[in-house]
Amino acid sequence: MTPPPRHLRFLRWLMLFKALQALATQLADGVEQRAAQLTNAWRAEVRRVVVAIVLATLMFLALLGSLAFAAVAVLLAYGEAHRVLAASVIAAALAIVALLALAGIRAQTAPTAGTRAPTGSRT
Q: Which residues of 89-123 are buried (b: 16+ CB within 10 A; e: fewer)?
């Protein structure tokens, strides 16, 4: 059996090269689309985090003002006779608020099933 003529071999190589070129173009388009989706998702997450931080700051300031008002109100209500008791009640209330905030932070930042570290890793 004789090998095919030289121009047929060249055409076969050319067809193979064009098929590989089309495959590479499709792969590059897919990667570009995924990168654009990731960029959009990243921007949305950053926006959500910034909004959450701003709202948390406003909430903290409002909570701080209300706690200060409550502390002053308790001190005025108990008066001169029970100043130590009033200070103890205020300290206990603030400690409870701090523990509740800590529990809320831990609940919100706990890893979910999809974000847990792989087994055997040290984090």
A: bbeeeeeeeeeeeeeeeeeeeeeeeeeeeeeeeee
